[in-house]
Amino acid sequence: MVKFSKQFEGQLIPEWKEAFVDYRQLKKDFKNIQFLNNNNSNDTKNQNSSVPNSIISSLRNYSPFGHHQNGEHVPPIQVHRKLGSSYDTELLEQFAETGAIKEFFACLDQQLNKVNKFYRTKENEFMERGNSLRKQMDILIQLKFAFQDQQGSIDKEYHSISCTFSNEEDSVRNREDPEEETEEISTDEIQFSDSCRADEVGEPTQVKREEEKLRTLSGRVINCQGKNLRINIPLTTPLRTFSAITYLVREDLINQSRKFSIGAGKVHINQTKLRHSEKMIKRGFIELYKGLEYLKLYRNLNMLAFMKILKKFDKVTSKQVLPIYLKVVESSYFNSSDKVIKLSDEVEELFVRNFAGDDRKKASKYLRPSHRHKESHSTRINYSFIFELVPTKELTYRDIFLVCTMAMTTVVGTMLLHLTLLTKGYSYAQLQHIPGLLILVFLLMLLCPFNVIYRSTRYRFLCTIRNIIFSPLYKVVMQDFFVADQLCSQVPMLRNLEYVACYYISGSYKTLDYGYCTRKNYYKDLAYAVSFLPYYWRAMQCARRWFDEGERSHLVNLGKYVSAMLAAGAKVAYEKDGSSNVGWLCVVIFSTAATVYQLYWDFVRDWGLLQFNSNNPLLRNELMLRNKAIYYFSMGLNVILRLAWLQTVVHSTLQGVDSRVTTLFLAALEVIRRGLWNFFRLEHEQLNNAGKFRAVNIVPLPFHEVDEED
């Protein structure tokens, strides 16, 4: 049977772990009480042989944890409620001499006050977000009704547009929504009367700060009930980016003259942007409902933790503390407030009515998606939230192991087939097409449009690669720059793919001319580009993040990849002409500068280490691994592996070793280094989320009130 403490830690929300009841500490204090109680019991047994029966009978009637006064039972504790809704437990005289019990109830009060404070904070945050979404929904409904009412009476000056706000039963998409990606922001506008009514648009302060960092496609200001509103759509795709430019130019050059000719009480709105607004509000409701469900789980788990620890206390002390303290817990704010339950029901009703066509079963697919496997956070890193993965389509570690095993088995099997055919008398020329066919099979599997071999994951991977290649046109999220960082460690692999493509496309495999591609100038020029591309993509991603968020740290990060490009260029140039002293000096200078830059960013920014005021020397306060030596060892190993470029300038002294073998060995070391980097990077991201208690995404909302029309 699994212990409650393990069940408790396995079910809690990892980003809110510090806000949950510290059950381990309570259990530790309880064990101190249990230890003292056992010692007292043993002492009593040892003295029984020499104590008269009358005294023994009196001791049995005496309890060290409570007493009776005038025939009435006196409660062992009294819980007082102070100002600010905090609680303080007063121990009666029979408890006064027991320090362990004092510590236990002091910790219990501290945990109860902490839970109440956090619950109230999150409840206010979600209530404020709920009010904003409700007002956003009201505006959207009014605009849709106004469009439907005037759909047949649009002025001839404007194009006739048919608009249907369908609630198609598609999967819960993240950023890679095919329909959303391919839609172009139309410049056609719909004319509405000022009968459109909307309440004031309210935004939580925290959400406002988040959204102010995000560049959006802001169209013409519309007026609803005397309030000026603007529709802001994030520029997440190239089509939106280009359309934003053309749309704003069209507004300035063409529509500016129309603005004054439209009769009073008329406003214009972009119909396609209205559809995107609906999707943004829809996702906002989904994230809000997710947060409310988390808060319900938070309440239930904490209530269960208080009940379990109090039961243990009563069992050891033989006192009825549970009914007294549990009554206080049940009446405390986190358990007695019903705002979250009411808001959750309201959100569900709004979602069913407006986004699911009054179909609750359909709505549940969005609000309560079924998990392919039992969710567990024993790995202590919430990968799904960090990478914004769809729970129903997330691969398990078994799936990943199966894919890797299948791929390696196929490669090894093909190699054995190749060797077997050679022993049967086939020539090298006859078997040169086998490796090419193997690569082609893997490529076709990746691009297969049928719903086989994890299609949703393959599609998501292809979308991520597309976003990387077309940087900075796409909005950058965690998975984009994380995969791009992996590509920075795969430059040798990319150059090998370049050689294989040239080898088969040029037909060199027919004549076994292995040096044909390396002799061609276009291949050498392409080698420069392949060496630069991963760093260029990351640099462009940093530029896009700076454009969207306005944080200078992204520009500093961009400088790191620029230095890496310079170092890579110097190494490629030196490989072409290894006898040049100037080339050797350039490699040393640029590579040294890039290495120092990268090591600083690895340790300080990506891993969050080298904090000199930390309780853990040269590390950080929060560590997921208990053994600190692992962090120090990883830091040292990262330094050594970052210096692998030294092989470039000393490879001429490595006599008797083929350069291709050395390159393969160094590439394998870089994979190991990147694996270490991945772990500590994700650990740092998880701790950042936990430090900010960020367990749900903040979705930007489309309608914003402005002071006046621009």
Account of the 3D structure:
The chain contains 27 helices and 10 strands. The protein is mostly helical and 710 residues long. Among the domains are: 4-39 and 76-129 and 282-375; 389-453. The strands form 4 sheets. Strands 6, 7, 8 and 10 form a 4-stranded antiparallel sheet that branches. A hairpin with a 2-residue loop joins strand 7 and strand 8. Helix 4 (99-150) runs parallel beside helix 11 (339-355) and helix 11 (339-355) crosses helix 12. It starts with a helix and ends with a strand. The model is unreliable at 55-66, 154-200, 207-214 and 256-266 (pLDDT under 50).
DSSP helix fraction = 55-70%
- Please give the number of β-strands: 10
Classify the oligomer.
single chain
Structural class: mainly alpha
Tell me, briefly, the overall form: globular
What Rg do the Cα atoms give? 33 Å
Give the DSSP E fraction (strand runs of 2 or more residues).
Answer: 5-15%
- Poorly predicted runs: 55-66, 154-200, 207-214, 256-266
What is the mean pLDDT? 80
Instruction: Tell me about the largest β-sheet.
Output: 4 strands, antiparallel
What is the terminal separation in angstroms?
66 Å
Number of helices: 27
